[in-house]
Amino acid sequence: MSRTQQLATWVSALRYNDLPRPVVEKTKDFFLDWYACAVGGRRHPAVVAMSAFARDMGPAGSGKSEVLHDPAHKTSSAFAALVNGAASHVIELDDLHNSSVVHPATIVFPAALAVAQEVGADGKAFITACVAGYEASCRVGEFLGPSHYKKFHMTATAGVFGAAAAAAQLLRLDDRQTLSAFGTAGTQAAGLWQFLIDATHAKQVHTAKAGFEGIFAAYTARAGLLGTADVLEGVSGMAAAMVPGAPNAEALTRNLGAPASYAILHSSYKWHASCRHTHGSADGLLQIMQDHGLKADDIKSVVCYVYRAAIDVLGRTGDDEKEENLTTVHQSKFNMGFVLAVIAKYGRASVLDFTDEALQDPDLLDFQKRVRMEVDDKIEADFPAKWQARVEVTTTSGVTFSQFVEVAKGDPGRHLTRQEIEDKARCIAEYACITDLRAFEETFRRVWRLENETDLGGLACV
Amino acid sequence: MSRTQQLATWVSALRYNDLPRPVVEKTKDFFLDWYACAVGGRRHPAVVAMSAFARDMGPAGSGKSEVLHDPAHKTSSAFAALVNGAASHVIELDDLHNSSVVHPATIVFPAALAVAQEVGADGKAFITACVAGYEASCRVGEFLGPSHYKKFHMTATAGVFGAAAAAAQLLRLDDRQTLSAFGTAGTQAAGLWQFLIDATHAKQVHTAKAGFEGIFAAYTARAGLLGTADVLEGVSGMAAAMVPGAPNAEALTRNLGAPASYAILHSSYKWHASCRHTHGSADGLLQIMQDHGLKADDIKSVVCYVYRAAIDVLGRTGDDEKEENLTTVHQSKFNMGFVLAVIAKYGRASVLDFTDEALQDPDLLDFQKRVRMEVDDKIEADFPAKWQARVEVTTTSGVTFSQFVEVAKGDPGRHLTRQEIEDKARCIAEYACITDLRAFEETFRRVWRLENETDLGGLACV
């Protein structure tokens, strides 16, 4: 049996009663964290455009799956996953699985929720599907590895396996059909980084389409479409075409199903509303400022010692001069200098702090110039197993402070509490101008008892 | 202006009155050739599965776009393009643009027809959109080049630009929106060769999805979604991620719009029902057998001197021993030995000759073993500008004959006549068990006067 086949067989055989209790609880936590993100991104033009596409092409109004921010738009599962997947990756607050560099929630939950609503699955089946989706997407992400990540938007290219796995579970595909779904998912895997250059909307297209493709893969597998058996390791498969370095083959099956190995236990919440690669440095700066009572004006310069991938991604808004000229809110979340400027000024970097007005704020633009990044060899060697940072702050009075951050807030070991998850969700609801906060908060209560829910309907809010 | 921008601007500005008469006539020829292919593939399980997906997810029955082989299934443009795009790539008789190694018809026509039916476009608008689609897909294919083709199914990865261009024309997108559509198309480009290993259904998934994605790209661009501006040549674009060698940048814009340069003039019909890489050798064998009055039993061995890509593709059914054991009709069309065996036995290799029974025919299996391939340096040097072959036949009596084929039947310079196109279509209709041949043949008459048609409806047949 190939490793891909072993993974497909495991996904197909997984049952709710197999799941350790912490895995069930963590799935609920990440689902609520995702739900807020999906509602929070509703006004983004990419979401509006894909919602229009779903209305043009799908059964607008007459489907069983909900577009979460638009109760009137009930559509088929593929289109609901498309729109919710686009929306949940807008505000940059969805989770990240560090060792794979995959954002699993934004692909797995939209697909699982849409299919669960379409087939009338209960909470237990939904939780099981989500666990399977996390497992598949994160393991494929680890398999594809850093050399793939340099070229491709991993969340999409690995994520499509997560959507396929979740949909396959809910459709009760057997092992052979699930393997077919993986084959079809893999041969459609796509997503280039070029959007970082001009701050365009492909990021949301990638998450939207990965959910759609995963559902396509599972539904067509059920209907008899044969996907190739060894799409990952085969001689003309993903690794051969899309992994310039060596794939991590063992990652596909190592400790599969071991209680402490479930991927969903190892995902990270995003506490700051910026690119995940800024979080270690943001925590470090905040710690130094708190420990030494510094204000933004006390700081002359900041050096962030990071792994190379951070510079690869965060440096991609253009050349040095252009980097100073941020033109969109999205770009500003991917600019280390700007993110640390927000941290220095507000003591946080929440979704309410990145605005068009902020792009013009002279305090922030001035602080931005004081920040630079350097690769640290030790930190680089530990990446992506650890997303560490060391921050050196030199004050206007000439003193230098240093703070090493091994684990950023939100990471495994520093996961958010349910109270913090709810607080973060309420903050997002405020940002998204949710008018019916009671309906929104009712979802909190449903999610905390999700394994007892008989269906997943009625989650849309306005 | 980047080259991608120049191409988008040209696509957006193209008008029917700009088109040279031969371009209009050739578009009609290739459209009819494609139409027969789309009807001919209707029973393939991948088509059945994707049709089921379209019914599950789309407005089954209430759309404006036709699934050509199923008059009752009128759906939205994206799903009609999906199913027709899958169907038209099943019987391996759709056209090929040699210098790009793209099969443009199977992506461009499904997308253009589906959108034309959805927006109520007339024949002239449809023809213009198809010309734009051929131009975009073939030029992008030439841009991506042979090193990309080794890793990716070019018809899909370049084809998505053709679907996007055709849809953009019919939606009357401006140059900026068309560029956005290209950006969205490119960041979704996908398609691995792994399906050749186990004869699975990804080939049809690729053509189906490329049409779907192109429509997605154009409709969402109209709705405000921003695609990245330089998706082909940008530092994190397609060339950077998916072209291991050097892309052919000039191909994107060289002689754009020059009367003799239109891509559709340079596409090739497929006369034999097998992989295009077998055609030169098939013609050569046929010529030798006709010239010297040979029968299959007179032939002891056949050596086909070809370009390397032919061996790369045709050798991919497995290792040497397994190659003898063809298990599917699809595999048999990609096996040089088997294809030449069919030619030797029947004097042709039509869609009626590749069957499950043929796979068990001892005559064919015996002849198959007498065929081998070798790379010819001169032929390799001319590829992909020329798809040449030289065939050496040694008879049982020890005489050796050689035939060089510079231009295969169906290629530019040896294009099919309208009579031959109709004959080929009738043969496909027989294969597909079309019951209402009068409706089928009425389409011939509509296509030959396509520029005078006020709409594209009513082309489905049973």
UniProtKB/TrEMBL annotation, chains A, B:
In Swiss-Prot or TrEMBL terms, this protein is called: 2-methylcitrate dehydratase
Under InterPro entries, the record lists: MmgE/PrpD_sf, MmgE/PrpD_sf_1, MmgE/PrpD_sf_2, MmgE_PrpD, MmgE_PrpD_C, MmgE_PrpD_N
Can you tell me which family this protein belongs to? Belongs to the PrpD family.
> Which Gene Ontology terms cover its molecular function?
lyase activity
Which intervals hold domain MmgE/PrpD N-terminal?
5-247
Q: Which residues form the MmgE/PrpD C-terminal domain?
A: 272-438
The family database entries (PANTHER family) matched by this protein are listed as: 2-METHYLCITRATE DEHYDRATASE, 2-METHYLCITRATE DEHYDRATASE-RELATED
Q: Which Gene3D superfamilies match?
A: 2-methylcitrate dehydratase PrpD (3.30.1330.120)
Q: Which organism is it from?
A: Ophiostoma piceae (strain UAMH 11346)
